[in-house]
Each structure stands twice: as structure tokens, then as C-alpha cells.
User: Fold these one by one.
Assistant:
Number 1:
Amino acid sequence: SQQGEEDPQALSIQEGENATMNCSYKTSINNLQWYRQNSGRGLVHLILIRSNEREKHSGRLRVTLDTSKKSSSLLITASRAADTASYFCATDLNNTDKLIFGTGTRLQVFP
Amino acid sequence: GAVVSQHPSWVICKSGTSVKIECRSLDFQATTMFWYRQFPKQSLMLMATSNEGSKATYEQGVEKDKFLINHASLTLSTLTVTSAHPEDSSFYICSGQGLYEQYFGPGTRLTVT
């Protein structure tokens, strides 16, 4: 399977703490994206990082990309209960528009 | 961002019947749409790529005769699950390819009894 892997599978933290999720993928990419999914809902696009970028910020989100290790991380700072969701990384496949999703991290933020 | 809708949002059907799910791009034209399936607590798995005016291309292991895809216009793709069985119960999500990214619909939960 070309599916990427994420760790941890599940993460529970208190409000105000930081949450870090990691994604590893298998093939060369043009870009990597992170999505959030609330339970039983559709996907919300969070951030896209291109293969020639190493770090990107968006509000409380910080994404890093290491193409030599085929890995990415998503850091959510000062977490809130509303951040409770599943988070998925997704990579493009073989220079196509197809997306291959990682296995996901379920984040629970306790108030 | 651009908006993609799906209809219905949830559906229950009996085993052996067929169910059609619609995916619409509301404020942009999507030459390409994608269909994904997501089982509980699992990730999204790409089922097929739907191209306007041509046949869909299916991922390995996805039965094209069971999951019929039609992309008759630049704003509408449909997925028909034929002769549904309980193991087809899942969350089906579509997306429309925009200029730089895919825009996802809210999903359709299918339960086959």
C-alpha cells in the first residue's frame, strides 16, 4: 500500500498544551497537505506545504517537511477543546491530482 | 474556499438495492472529481477518479461494475452503489479538483441493512 502512516494514532491532551502529529510517506511528492475531520463530517483543509519548503505557519499551526526523511509534522499550539478532531496528512501521487491519505491521528483536547 | 455538496447526507437501504449519491461543485467547475470511501475510525481510501465526459478510472481492488460513476457535467458527478450489501456500509466522500487543491464534500453515510 502507498498509504502514509501517522503517529500517534491517538493523542489526548489538556487545553493549552501543544499537540504534535507526525506523518511519513513513501513516494516522492510535489506537496503535502494536512486536513482536519470532525467526527462524521467532511474534511477541512488546513495547510499545504510544497516539496521545496521546509516549514510553514498558519495561525496556531506549524507544519514542517523533511523530504529526505519523507516525513512531515503538524504542531498545534495552545490547543483548544474545539481542536478535537482527526487529522490527516495527504500527499499527491506520482505527479497526479490524486491524494493519498495517511492513517490519521485522533486528537482529543480536554477542557 | 470553493464549495462541494453531497446528497443525500445519509441513506439507509436494503441489501440488494442500488443507491445513488450526488456530488456537486457549487461555485466552480470541476473537470475532475474524486470518490473516497472511509470506514469507521479509518482513513480515506481513493476509490475512483471521475472525469467529465469520459469514463471513470478506478483504483485497484474497486469493482467498477459495482460502483458506477457518471460525470455528465462540469458540476455534477454521481456514484451509484449497485446491489448493495452490508459490507458496502461506509462513509463516501467526494471532492472536486480546483485550480490548486481538492475541495471536499461533507460526505454521505450509507448503511445497508
Number 2:
Amino acid sequence: AQSVTQLGSHVSVSEGALVLLRCNYSSSVPPYLFWYVQYPNQGLQLLLKYTSAATLVKGINGFEAEFKKSETSFHLTKPSAHMSDAAEYFCAGGAGNTPLVFGKGTRLSVIA
Amino acid sequence: DAGVIQSPRHEVTEMGQEVTLRCKPISGHNSLFWYRQTMMRGLELLIYFNNNVPIDDSGMPEDRFSAKMPNASFSTLKIQPSEPRDSAVYFCASRSQGVGEKLFFGSGTQLSVL
């Protein structure tokens, strides 16, 4: 069965600093992995998606994530944080045509 | 496309009242999902449909909750009777049926049961 674990419910970085949000998955089959972002009072929006075509996936707003099978990880990074990146970030995974399983989310704060 | 449309955006009701949440998925999407989001539990899958047929409702918390999808362009989630612990944000999401397809979310309904 698929499960997704996000390490750290809250991450705080300074503006311009590296953003690293951690996600680990467990799956008995090759997974499909996603990162979603949720701004206040909005629904979730897709940041990026991994479907085995390439291990390094680039998404919107300068975010990228690297799939590492040996570590069962799919961490989200951005080289330089911007104030507008402050939001809740969700890692999600699925296998086959099953519903996505979401992590509990990580709230990113960006300090000026 | 207008995206996934949910109504109402906000609902305030009193305990014991019936609540109906509505969702219009993206045209052409044949899978629809209802999620509930709370601080304590995060994002929980309540029920999902493929081609208007309920596939898995094991996430529905109690018999007070019911969901229908009478056609490909409309779904409802009903709570009767509502209780204060049902207060949450309810999201509807849709996607094409296929391996690895991405999920599109509505803006959610903020439900407050007093």
C-alpha cells in the first residue's frame, strides 16, 4: 500500500535562502509522486509531478524535486525563497489508478 | 476551462441541520474525489467516483454522510444531521481516469457547524 510521509510540519527560511521540504514514500510498486501547494483560503494547486520519465522534475515557480529510489524520497527544493512562496505544501503519491495519498503537509514560512 | 467548481464557498449552519455541498468537475474528467481537510487530520479522502459510480466510500466517517453523482458534471456531499465536529474545509477534485493523471482541486467549502 502506498503511504507518504512529510518530515516537518513547519519549515521557516529567510528570503533568498534554500528551500528544502522533505517527503518519503513507501510503495510496493513504482509510484507516481506529486507536490501540491495550497495558499490561504484556496484549493491545492499542482507544483510538479513525477512519472518515471526523469528523476529530476522541474515545476512551476522555480521549484524542483528529485526522485531517489534508493532513499524512497522525493524532496522539494528551490534555490532562493521568495516571500510569495509562503504556503502549505503537500506531497502525494499513488500507484496505478488508485486515489492519491497525501502527506500531512508542511507549512513554509519565509522571513524577510 | 473554469476548473473544478464548488459551492457554496462558505456555509454556516446549526447542529442538526442538513448540509449539502456541491461540485462540478472539469468537463471530460471521469474520476471525482471528495476530501475533508482539518488541522488535526490533514487531508482525508472521503469517497471517490469513477464514471459516476462510487468506488470506495470507506473514508466516509459516518452514516450521516452521503455522496451522489447523478451525472458526469455534478456531485453532492450531504451531511444529515450535521454536528460541530463536521466543521472543516471540504474539497472536491477531479481527474482523467488513467495512470498517473494529475488531480485538479476546487476552491473548497468552508463548513462551520455551530
